[in-house]
Design brief:
The structure holds two protein chains of two kinds. Chain A is α+β, with helices and mostly antiparallel strands. Chain A is built from 13 helices and 22 strands. In chain A, 25% of the residues lie in helices and 29% in strands. Chain B is of the alpha/beta class. In chain B, strand 2, helix 2 and strand 3 form a beta-alpha-beta unit. In chain B, 61% of the residues are buried. The chains are: A alpha+beta, B alpha/beta.
């Protein structure tokens, strides 16, 4: 029906353990992944999407012209009246005018997007569709314990070409009954003993019976649902003999990543080498997928992202991180900083896509355009794609520039492609652990400029690059 | 080319630099201009054209956007008055324009005045605010002025074996000099330890490695050399003046060929000025130098750019105390920007006034003995634009 060609992961580098988040009830070792102050659901989605496209063959531009759709899913949208999907398409330099839709509202929306992408490719009208689910939910301060949140994003590239996996069957089963939802922004929770029977159990049992015509086939069952723990008997009833439930090992490492969670669970099983997977995603109705894996992925993005993190060591620091934009610098409080959508649009090729200019005569590479080469005065340039990795030429820690976590480190980077950029270092909540030296290897990541966070403003920042 | 000593400075004036809460922009203009007019023994209406140097009008009350802000406080009307803006080289550029107008015959007496009123706002509200809130939303966002020079310091330390102590010792030297200057903002010596332990601004530079941005004004009156009245005037002659824009606002940080070890602008400006003044061995042919020590590191690397020593040897010149008062080539005997303070538009002219007073043997306690020829240097923007002026008491 459709093929998964590649996938990508966007996980922030910070985690907080539950014993820090809500003592004394919280357990050490149980972690939530938390965005740094310059990350949001757009930057996580961007990370996931570029990871997904990079795996293809490194030739981003060529791939980008072949993408004919992008579907974005989140239960915590950043915009209203603006499509996240088309915003991301623009950030990725995809073609204008492609299909770009948002699936917003529920934690099932990630697989909703997957379902539609699968149908569209199956119809023959679309060839390559990106699906991305991204979730950045911050609960009310003090309500961290009762909100199973975690920040993360997952992207899949679906195609009619052969890939690492096939979606051989997909179906969605609606339910009128919901256990937990909000009405006029008030959270409602029906009596669970009643609603679990009427909602979850009834709907999932019915869906399984109708979908799983050959229930003994599956090597792993991925079930993403609030009441997953009481689903065993439902599967037995539907003819599954020994239910090979995939254990949700992610929640302990990242928390529940909402709309992205089902997709991340699927990827986790693919990376474990499972061959035939049933994916069930329940929220007020069930999405069911049958996924067959053709080959193990070469690069285990999810395992790598899970293995590398920095711990936030106090609840106070977690609060500081959430107050992004409330700058602490000596006597500085203003937030109203200059930003212009005209500039961003006009200078997109350079600012966003890192299109550089190479002097035809002396081959010096510039990030910024000029009429003539500073070095040899040649007036002919060709445009080249600047890489996102490089080496630190010099740096300084700026103690007087407003920042949530001063000092801001400014890094002058010689890019591997040639060309030089000067940007802020990020993920520097703990300055001591993130010290950068001349000669250090760094990578550029797309982050919010929190100095002008009153509008979407994304630009490159540097993080340490372990090769 | 023969020496171009056709232009003379016949009047000089400078206000105290500092937090001049009791003086307005207009008061500062009057203070400096009236001193210079008095010194030149001319009447206000002898002035045929004037240049006003103010770099940051938006920090005050929009004073200094146009030449009229010089005319108004002096009632100096019905002559051409132009505002010059070239970052920290604004003052020197006002002098350059005045010089060229005298040469072109536009006027017979020219006035160049630099003034900056920065302390009508609190420090966090002034130049730092410009870097934070205005400018390009992405490019260089995160830098303050200190940071744009601190990256040179870190590279110098890596490349040339310059130590943190060397950089701090520039500040110690200049603060020692400044303790003798009654018009300086800081008139107090400081120790190496005090510099190293003061509040960090942009690593490795601390508060005492950074000049304070202050209020102040300075003024010179210039005529053609043939119009000097030796009975009335103690003329100082401009032997050379070079100004060079050698990079841009953003380019230094995005140019893969930039080594962060020197300022090309200083080298080019010095080249022009040295050629006019026929200087081939500056350390031997100059008696004192005022260098743009906005941050301590800038003075250190400027030794090399001005050709006082070879590349990488600036630290040796400093360690040998050659640039201290009494050394081979005293640098910043005024106390420099680090002690005097830095009213941006006024600084270049303040330096010319300083060197002129030594060449007139009028500098009091800090007089450099037998000074015949001196140099002033400014560097503006992120090392983008530099000026070098060579002054002599002989023509």
């Amino acid at each position: 029906m459709s093929n998964i060609i590649s996938y990508g992961i966007g996980l922030p580098s910070f985690r907080i353990e539950e014993d820090k988040l809500f003592p004394p009830g919280g357990k050490k070792g149980m972690m939530r992944s938390i965005c740094f102050s310059d990350e949001d659901s757009i930057t996580l989605a961007y990370d996931a999407l570029s990871d997904c496209l990079k795996v293809m063959n490194g030739d981003l531009i060529k791939v980008n012209t072949q993408i004919d759709g992008i579907l974005f899913a989140s239960s915590t949208p950043l915009f209203q009246n603006r499509y996240h999907a088309s915003y991301l398409a623009d950030l990725l330099n995809l073609q204008q005018g492609i299909l770009a839709l948002d699936f917003i509202n529920t934690s099932r929306s990630g697989t909703d997007a997957l379902l539609l992408a699968n149908e569209l490719i199956d119809s023959g009208k679309y060839k390559n569709i990106l699906v991305v689910a991204s979730e950045v939910c911050f609960p009310e301060i003090g309500k961290e314990q009762s909100t199973p949140f975690g920040h993360g994003a997952c992207a899949l590239l679906l195609s009619n070409d052969k890939g690492i996996a096939n979606i051989t069957k997909a179906k969605s089963y609606s339910a009128s009954f919901a256990e937990e939802f909000s009405y006029k922004l008030n959270a409602l929770q029906y009596d669970p003993r009643f609603s679990r029977d009427e909602g979850f159990k009834t709907n999932l049992a019915d869906a399984l019976t109708r979908f799983a015509t050959n229930p003994r086939n599956y090597q792993a069952i991925v079930l993403n649902a609030m009441y997953a723990r009481m689903a065993g008997p439902l599967f037995t009833k539907a003819g599954f003999e020994e239910t090979p439930f995939a254990k949700d090992t992610l929640t302990a490492k990242t928390g529940n990543t909402g709309a992205a969670h089902a997709l991340l669970l699927l990827i986790n099983e693919i990376e474990q080498g499972k061959k035939n997977i049933l994916l069930a995603d329940y929220t007020n109705g069930t999405n069911l997928f049958e996924v067959q894996i053709n080959e193990a992925p070469e690069h285990l993005s999810l395992q790598q992202a899970l293995a590398h993190y920095q711990l936030i060591d106090t609840y106070q620091n977690y609060l500081c991180l959430r107050k992004a934009g409330n700058f602490s610098a000596p006597e500085y409080t203003t937030r109203d900083m200059f930003s212009s959508e005209m500039m961003l649009q006009r200078e997109k090729e350079t600012l966003l896509y890192r299109g550089g200019f190479q002097c035809v005569k002396c081959e010096t590479v510039y990030y910024l355009r000029s009429a003539r080469c500073k070095h040899c005065k040649g007036d002919e340039f060709k445009t080249i794609q600047l890489q996102n990795t490089g080496t630190v030429y010099s740096f300084t820690h700026e103690h007087y520039f407003p920042s949530s976590f001063p000092p801001i480190t400014m890094v002058i980077i010689d890019l591997d492609s040639g060309g030089r950029m000067t940007v802020q270092q990020t993920d520097t909540m703990y300055a001591e652990k993130n010290k950068i030296e001349i000669g250090a290897r760094v990578k550029l990541v797309l982050r919010k400029m929190i100095e002008n966070d009153l509008k979407p403003n994304y630009f490159w920042k540097a993080i340490a690059h372990d090769e | 080319m023969s020496k171009q000593t056709d232009i003379a400075i016949i009047g000089i004036g400078v206000t105290k630099f500092g937090e001049l809460f009791h003086q307005s922009y207009d008061d500062l203009v009057r203070d400096a201009a009236l001193q210079a007019i008095d010194d030149a023994s001319i009447a206000m209406d002898d002035i045929g054209a004037a240049w006003l140097s103010t770099a940051f009008p938006e920090i005050g009350v929009f004073k200094g956007r146009s030449g009229m802000d010089l005319s108004e406080p002096l009632s100096l009307y019905n002559i051409p008055v132009t505002r010059v803006s070239n970052y920290c080289a604004s003052g020197a550029d006002a002098i350059r324009n005045a010089m060229n107008a005298l040469r072109a015959g536009e006027c017979d007496v020219a006035l160049a005045l630099g003034v900056e009123k920065l302390r009508d706002r609190q420090p966090q509200d002034s130049i730092v605010k410009l870097m934070v809130e205005y400018g390009h939303p992405f490019l260089q966002k995160g830098f303050t002025a200190a940071g744009t020079f601190a990256v040179y310091a870190n590279r110098m330390m890596k490349e040339y074996g310059v130590t943190r102590e060397d950089i701090a010792n520039i500040s110690v030297k200049n603060h020692l000099h400044g303790s003798l200057n009654k018009k300086a903002f800081y008139q107090k010596p400081c120790t190496l330890e005090e510099v190293m332990k003061s509040q960090m601004v942009a690593s490795p530079l601390t508060v005492l490695d950074s000049c304070p941005t202050t209020d102040g004004a300075a003024c010179v009156i210039m005529v053609r050399a043939e119009d000097v009245d030796h009975k009335k005037h103690k003329p100082i002659f401009i032997q050379g003046l070079g100004l060079s824009v050698s990079t841009g606002w953003d380019l230094p940080f995005f140019d893969p060929n930039h080594d962060f070890l020197s300022f090309e602008a200083t080298q080019k400006a010095a080249q022009i000025a040295y050629k006019q003044a026929q200087i081939t061995n500056p350390i031997e042919q100059l008696d004192l130098i005022e260098v743009h020590d906005c941050f301590s590191i800038v003075e250190l690397l400027t030794y090399e750019d001005l050709g006082l020593c070879k590349k990488g040897e600036a630290k040796d010149l400093l360690r040998g105390k050659e640039t201290q008062h009494g050394g081979k080539i005293p640098v910043n005997v005024s106390g420099g920007l680090l002690s005097c303070g830095h009213p941006v538009g006024a600084t270049g002219i303040r330096m010319v006034v300083e060197v002129a007073s030594h060449l007139r043997n009028d500098a009091g306690e800090r007089q450099v003995k037998k000074a015949k020829r001196g140099l002033t240097h400014n560097i503006g923007g992120p090392g983008a634009i530099a000026s070098v002026i060579i002054l002599s008491n002989e023509n």
